[in-house]
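Methods — Computational structure assignment.
A single polypeptide chain was analysed. Its primary sequence is given first, followed by the predicted tertiary structure written as structure tokens.
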Amino acid sequence: MTDPRGAQTARTRAVVTQYLEALNAHDPDRIVACVTPDYYNEHTSTPGTSVRGRDAYRARLPEFLAQFRDLHYEVEDVIVEDDRAAVPYTMSFRYVSDADAAHDVTIRGMFRFRVADDAIAHRVDYWDSHEFDRQVRADSRVG
């Protein structure tokens, strides 16, 4: 007897894990290989910009990865049910502002994913933009 629900949950976990590994590797082609053609990357934080479509996402990734240098997601947990996953994380990076000033930032957040056709169809990213601003301002005063 097969367990289609358990199989879907396992596939979802594998897709999400692969995507997070690609993000941590800073490889735009590997990242977009994990998403559907109609992928929706939704941001809830003020500095974040939502984007629809794999091609639009791919076009934006080099600038994003340059501005969020050394981006790393430390995964706290992966919670999966069927085609959905929630991933609390601690994100660290060196933020490079438009004025080329660099600031070390560490923020906790949460991803929410929906997987379709063994790829990520929708990602919602929740993190505190006020905490981001606080760390960038505090770092600016140190120098």
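Note: The helical segments are 4-25, 28-32, 54-67, 129-142.
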